[in-house]
């Protein structure tokens, strides 16, 4: 069995994952506030570094964006659709009111199409858009 060198980016991702877990455990405490001040930017920065290393000068922007659409936006919209179904069913069961349940689905729908992301899905369109902007800022075409 060969020893593999642990990359500093792998370590940073691991630390970010652990901090995310601890941040979700400490609900509303000072540790959560401290962790939330940097753990998502850490993921975005590490992802940008990895993306930059993977992208060559010959990578076509259109192909990269299509890949990001398939890998990020398609799952984003599918999870959002599942979330809307869940929100509707839970709203219907808890409130026994179709109009109120539909109102919650409408809110979820608009947050989804405006790329705000409903609930915890906010990071997916943010990740997509930051990747596209990164390409332009680096001058990669």
Outline the secondary-structure elements.
Blueprint (H helix, E strand, L loop, with lengths): L7 H18 L4 H7 L2 H16 L6 H35 L2 H16 L9 H15 L4
Helix pairs in contact: 1-2, 1-3, 3-6, 4-5, 4-6
Write a short abstract of this structure.
The protein has 141 residues and is an all-alpha fold. The chain is built from six helices and no strands. The radius of gyration is 19 Å and the shape is flat.
Q: Would you give an account of this structure?
A:
The protein has 141 residues and is mainly alpha-helical. Helix content is 76%, strand content 0%. Helix 1 runs antiparallel to helix 3, helix 4 (61-95) runs antiparallel to helix 5 and helix 4 (61-95) packs antiparallel against helix 6. It starts with 7 loop residues before the first helix and ends with a helix. The mean pLDDT is 81.
Termini, distance in Å?
41 Å
Give the tally of β-strands.
Answer: 0
Structural class: mainly alpha
Shape: flat
Unreliable sequence segments:
none
How much is the radius of gyration in Å? 19 Å
Q: How many distinct helices?
A: 6
What's the rounded overall pLDDT mean? 81
Task: Write out key terms for the chains shown.
single chain, 141 residues, mainly alpha, 6 helices, 0% strand
């Amino acid at each position: 069995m060969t020893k593999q060198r642990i990359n500093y980016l792998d370590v940073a991702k691991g630390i970010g994952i652990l901090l995310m877990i601890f941040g979700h455990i400490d609900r509303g405490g000072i540790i959560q506030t401290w962790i939330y001040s940097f753990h998502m930017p850490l993921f975005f920065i590490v992802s940008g570094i990895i993306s930059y290393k993977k992208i060559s000068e010959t990578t076509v922007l259109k192909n990269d964006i299509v890949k990001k659409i398939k890998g990020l936006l398609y799952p984003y919209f599918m999870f959002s659709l599942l979330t809307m179904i869940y929100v509707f069913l839970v709203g219907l069961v808890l409130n026994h009111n179709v109009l109120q349940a539909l109102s919650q689905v409408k809110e979820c729908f608009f947050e989804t199409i405006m790329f705000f992301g409903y609930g915890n899905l906010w990071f997916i369109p943010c990740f997509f858009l930051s990747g596209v902007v990164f390409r332009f800022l680096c001058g990669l075409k």
